[in-house]
Amino acid sequence: MQFNLADVFDTVASAVPDRVALTYEGVNFTYAELDAEANRTAHLLAGAGIQPGEHVALFLKNSVEHVTSILGSVKIRAVPINVNYRYTHAELEYLFTNSDAVAVVVELPEHQRALADLLDVCPLIRTVFVVGETTDELRTAAAAREVTVTAFAEARTLPTSGEFAPRSGDDLYVLYTGGTTGYPKGVMWRQDDFFRKPLSGGNPYGDDPRRDLAEVAAAAKEFPEFAFLIAAPLMHGAALYSLFTFFTLGARVVLKRDFTPKEVVESIEKDRVQVILIVGDGMGLPLVDEMERRQGEIDFGSLFSITSGGAIWSVGVRDRMLAVKPDLVLRDNFGASESGNDGAFTVDEAGNLRMPPSPNMIVVDEALETIAPGTDEIGYIARIGNIPLGYYRDEDKSARTFPVRADGTRLSVLGDMGRVEADGTIVFLGRGSQCINTGGEKVFAEEVEAALHAHPSISDALVVPKPDERMGQQVAAVVAVYPDAPAPTLEEIQRHCRTTLAGYKIPRAVVLVAEVKRTPAGKADYRWATSVAAS
């Protein structure tokens, strides 16, 4: 059977209509209620002329409207486009034009003003849906371009029925990458592949994927009541994957408007949260700071697991979380917009990230040949099986990231480096694009960052290369320190790192900053860090 995301959600909503699907700012929506709101949004989009296959940009922070815009789009076979709301003018222009968006859903006044400044250079946009009040700037710019502005609230007057045209597993879902090392790229997923890979075939806690919608319905009915808190923004791939995964299970998603550690920790007790999704140390560090401050005040009894994806999650941060609640299950997911959910890392005594053998993950050399287990050869981690079709409107980058081997096997090769041990375990070394070559030795930034995050004074850190006349490059660190902690010297940081890192991996330069710049999803901004280190 070919799965479609809207069909899957409809199936679950019919199977468990009275179960709570979404908790947002203290308001609960059952599956029946959320499905009705999504149907209204679908009718709103269709009534504005949005056709199957057309792209709808979601220029939104986390909200109920964000969720219903995603679901409403796929219900009418339109394609929702995730927009990073902190992008610059140039980045937003690129995303709106590259994605061929014909409509935009927008909320905050500052986002409306940014969109107003872009309408003249985005000729395909013909409709804007505004959540809340429309700004004068957007109204004026839209009138000049003859762009229709529609109040999102009009959806409240539309039918709740879900009678739409038949859908297909070939319908696309386009997920734009974070763009931390360049302009974002739109990853094209067939929805059937999206269900089978990012959503683990509807069975993230088992080995057997669902075979049809009847199995999806039966599994949702049997799944226990479960509260999963998404602290990351929905425009981030890990949050989007989690949203659909837990909707597929019939679980309750607790959605936060923004990542505010205080609210997340309080929600554990208030909403009886069992699992929290974070994005690496960017969220993990402030979260564990708050957990430590509120220990003894907040009841952490319901919290079963903290899950991370999309960024490095250091051993030091995990150990602090376990000190607060020793029985926590910490899951470090490995995946990307271009590969979906690849499984969970484990961490060995030396701090190495390890992936158990998988039929859908291999390590290849420069010629895309599989590296045999048990060698010391470092290669590229490649995914096979259910992978994306490519990047939207970018054949060159698609060919590089999704090459085809001589036997016809398509690969997803993102630049993650690793080696294969004798038993097939893959040891993750880091992203090749962030590899520092110092005197011929290769240093992976993630490994050094993990060591820095274990320093008691360091609240956050990024590691980048800095030009060096003798060594070619040297390891440089951009570091932020806790407000009440003494600023460590370069010598102190080097002494700390030598306890876990080889000598050539030790930072030779450290720049102290008030705050390490990251994306709203907690992803590293290496362009910024490189410029800071160079200065």
TrEMBL record:
PROSITE patterns named among the record's database cross-references: AMP_BINDING (PS00455)
NCBIfam families the record matches: PRK07798.1
Native species: Rhodococcus gannanensis
Superkingdom to which the source organism belongs: Bacteria
Pfam families reported in the protein's UniProt record: AMP-binding, AMP-binding_C
UniProt domain AMP-dependent synthetase/ligase: residue ranges: 9-381
Protein name: AMP-binding protein
AMP-binding enzyme C-terminal domain boundaries: 447-523
